[in-house]
Amino acid sequence: MGNDTTIFWFRRDLRLTDNAGLYHALRDNEHVVPVFIFDTVILDALEDIEDRRVEFIHQTLAGLKAQLEALGSSLVILHGNPVTLYRVLHPRAVYTNHDYEPYARERDGAIQKLLEKKGIGFHAYKDQVIFEKDEVVKDDGKPYTVFTPYSRKWKAALTPFYLKRYPVEKYTGHFKKIKHQPFPGLEDIGFQRTGAQFPERVIRTGIIEKYDRTRDFPDVHGTTRLSVHLRFGTVSIRKLCQVAQQKNQVWLNELIWREFYAMILWHFPHVQTESFKPKYDRIAWRNDPAEFDLWCTGQTGYPIVDAGMRELNATGFMHNRVRMITASFLTKHLLIDWRWGEAYFGQKLLDYDLASNNGGWQWAAGSGCDAAPYFRVFNPALQTKKFDPDHAYIKKWVPEYQTDAYARPVVEHALARQRALNTYKKGLG
User: Fold this and answer.
1) What pTM does this model have?
2) Cα torsion angle, 80, 84, 88, 94, sign
3) Collapsed DSSP state (helix, strand, coil) of residue 96
4) What single DSSP character describes residue 146?
5) Which of 9, 97, 248, 257 is catalytic?
6) Choosing from 9, 154, 338, 340, which is the catalytic residue?
């Protein structure tokens, strides 16, 4: 790269506007080269070579590269283990934004040590959240484990300073002038096209204004579909919080839930593989592979559950209300370990985010912080009556519903509920 070159490393922040780390890199340096690494540690763990998320990243990078080339620069795309790649790079400094997941923390720590040995600075900034790490904690300095007091403290701490945008455009002349860089195809990194349709990167204020009234109805286009853009940083969280403050406090609360779960993962990384409440790991899960397969494929005989799973499999999206219903059904009706369901969502969700996915699954199972109590077992029929009363959502995804071709229920609700209560009581002592 050369000693006059500074690297900006894109990760979960795939945009040129209002990007904290990119702003600091350009403001502090005159020859900034943007880099993205297809991280083989992450990619090699993906089971399906037709992965919608990889295709979304690939498409987004094509747009970023075009923007950079219009500025006389380009985007360097690498493929490999970032730690190994940085061993052979000798830039003046590396700038990036924080990532809070356990693997990312381990990776970044290793790279920082490696660079420091060479006298190269590693500078990381807060960008994907409004408040991080210890910025919103209890008065005694301990992390919150209940959402409502966390959200109150979060809102009390919020000032216009935290929503101020980073004016990257002031310093775009500091991108290094380089020739157009090669752009690998999906096949070059071991993947194939899916033909997926991705949600537009559009902030629909009309939907946000009505969000509190429409968000629970899966047949209504009542949510913004911005979650994938938040996940990969193609929109700014600061911009979204500004809109939420002005338009809808319920939508703002959803953004705060995202930060709450990110904070939980930061302070309690064991939740990635273990229950937040350790005693919940004593539950004797049934873990029936055949029943798990029926759940995965949307053949449980419970229409709202099957509609949700089929929507997920077909599109990579599932409505949030339906996520709760399907997760409750797996963990309570079928008594299958929440980790199985979390991993399946982790394979399929376009907006998959470790902290939020883990938090949602542990909430449904009762094992998480501020979770639904174990004795709360969603009744799919009542959920349908409340949130899909005309069965419009169900009929869209389960066309054989109300015909002889539709699957028989895998278990009877009252029996399953009582079995869950007995199993949880026994496991929890």
Assistant:
1) 0.95
2) positive
3) strand
4) S
5) 257
6) 338
Tokens standing for residue 1: 């790269």
Per the annotation, does 227 bind a ligand? yes
User: Given this model, what pLDDT does residue 2 score?
Assistant: 58
Q: Quick: pLDDT tens for 341-354.
A: 999 999 999 999 99
Per-residue pLDDT, averaged over 400-408, amounts to 97
Residue with tokens 């590396």: 94
Poorest-pLDDT segment among 99-113, 288-302, 369-383, 414-428? 369-383
- Give one DSSP letter per residue of 230-264, joined into a string: HHHTSS-HHHHHHHHHHH-HHHHHHHHHHHHHHHH
Domains of the chain: 1-127 (3.40.50.620), 129-164+203-267 (1.25.40.80), 272-424 (1.10.579.10)
Instruction: Point out the catalytic residue in the list 254, 274, 313, 379.
Output: 254
Q: How far is CA 284 from each of CA 260, 261, 328, 422, rounded to the nearest angstrom?
A: 29, 26, 16, 11
Q: Do the annotations mark residue 225 as ligand-binding?
A: yes
Q: What does the pLDDT look like over 19-75, one tens digit per residue?
A: 999 999 999 999 999 999 999 999 999 999 999 999 999 999 999 999 999 999 999
39 SS3 class: strand
211 is in an annotated binding site: yes
258 is an annotated ligand-binding site residue: yes
Per-residue DSSP letter, 175: B
Task: Confirm whether 361 is a catalytic residue.
Answer: yes
Query: Would residue 257 show up in a list of annotated catalytic residues for this protein?
Result: yes
Distances (CA, A) of 87 to 75, 76, 84: 20, 16, 5
